[in-house]
Amino acid sequence: MNQRVRPPPKGPKDRKIASWTQDPEGVRRDILAVARTEFAEKGLSGARVDEIAAKTSNSKRMIYYYFGDKEGLYRAVLEEAYARIRTFERSLDLGTLAPREAIARLTAFTFDYHADNPDFVRLVMIENIHHARHLATSSQIGSLNLSAIAMIGEIYERGLAEGVFREGLDPIDIHLTISALSFYNVSNRASIRQVFGHDMAAPDARARRCASAVDTLLRMVCR
């Protein structure tokens, strides 16, 4: 009687190949998630592709296949980080809200997003150390972030038309104020705690700062 011959069990190398061929986008997402943490914690110069490969169960060669080199991987991490916050912003459906409510909700969301995603803040800080040269070579960053200004511009124009917002403001200035209020609360946590003994990440302190950020924005844009 013929017996069915079973294939040998798959080893780690076989599983990597199967994952790559069956779910290439999943592999790419896995690499980006680990790389985001590594770059945020260690910076561009301190992060090592070997360590990223080991933590993703992918080969160094596979990472280079997807991203070209270490700087290409870092650029992709930045693009993914900006794409993520812009995607969440669009999900707020601010066009259905009155202008005052919309700008307040956007400010509160931005504040909370930064507080909940300190890796994003660290990546932006690191890229500023490099004078934004990786953002400058990205084909995606410009269009991604222009959508944020367009969103604020639409809210602002509605507010002007309804007579609730004051004239003479530039949407980029509104965006910069929202970003500054949100960014500082994360970027300076350690120094503020050391100098003043104040924990900006404590729930009550965070809630007060978020409310203050919303109030500041409304005072800036409203009549």
- From the coordinates shown, what is the CATH architecture of the largest domain? Orthogonal Bundle
Distance between the termini: 90 Å
- Morphology call: globular
Q: What is the CATH class name of the largest domain?
A: Mainly Alpha
Beta-strand content bin: under 5%
Biggest beta-sheet profile: none
The computed structural class is mainly alpha
Whole-number average pLDDT? 90
Radius of gyration, in Å, reads: 22 Å
Total count of strands = 0
How many domains is the backbone divided into?
2
Q: What is the H/E order? A: HHHHHHHHHHHH
What's the number of helices? 12
The residue ranges in which pLDDT falls below 50 over 5 or more consecutive positions are 1-19
Short description:
Helix content is 77%, strand content 0%.
Verbal overview:
By secondary structure, the protein is an all-alpha fold. The protein has two domains: 11-68, Homeodomain-like (Arc Repressor Mutant, subunit A), CATH 1.10.10; 75-221, Orthogonal Bundle (Tetracycline Repressor, domain 2), CATH 1.10.357. Helix content is 77%, strand content 0%. It contains twelve helices and no strands. The chain is globular, with a radius of gyration of 22 Å. Mean pLDDT is 90; it is low at 1-19.
